[in-house]
Amino acid sequence: MLSWGSQALEDDFNKQIIVDADRQQVNIKENRVTFYNNVVVTQGSIKMHAEELSVIGSEEKGSEVMIAKGEPATFYQLLDSGKPIEAEANEVRYDLKTQTLTLTTNAQLKQEESLVKGKMIKYSINKQEMVAQGDENSRVTTIFLPQQLDELTPKEDQQ
User: Fold this and answer.
1) Where in the sequence is the domain holding 88, given as residue range(s)?
2) DSSP letter, residue 17
3) Is residue 116 part of a domain?
4) How many domains does the chain have?
5) What is the rounded distance in angstroms from the CA atom of residue 149 to the CA atom of residue 153?
6) Taking the model in full, what pTM does it have?
7) Has residue 140 been placed in a domain?
8) What is its main location (predicted)?
9) Does residue 135 form part of some domain?
10) CA–CA separation, 25 vs 61, rounded Å?
11) pLDDT by residue (tens digit) across 44-98?
12) Which residues face 46 on adjacent strands?
């Protein structure tokens, strides 16, 4: 998006992850925990809400993947600038190692007045990079304010 010049709160990724839900199911063989109904995930300023959340573990600590499903599932995080990032989709995939969100079906990503909608949005939190795709029935929609273009334009030094 156009106004995203700030990094995520680095401290968030060092905090513990807390998951609250009505029910959970563990599959040790597959290294998967699935939470059901009214799922809330908290890690620092990060908040996720879903009807179902699968956490897939790996051999490497900190490489878990969370797959949240809902209508919609949501993701929220504060940037170091104090501006929030808000995301929602029918499926929100959060890769902890790469700090990447992949939003699938009815995807939208918002910061202040900027909004991107599409079939799929992939957003790298730490790199501040985003790719959005539509499909044969819908295109990508981007909404921003004109002054946000000024923020992207390099200013010549005043002498």
Assistant:
1) 10-151
2) P
3) yes
4) 1
5) 7
6) 0.83
7) yes
8) periplasm
9) yes
10) 21
11) 999 999 999 999 998 888 789 999 999 999 999 998 888 899 999 999 999 999 9
12) 43
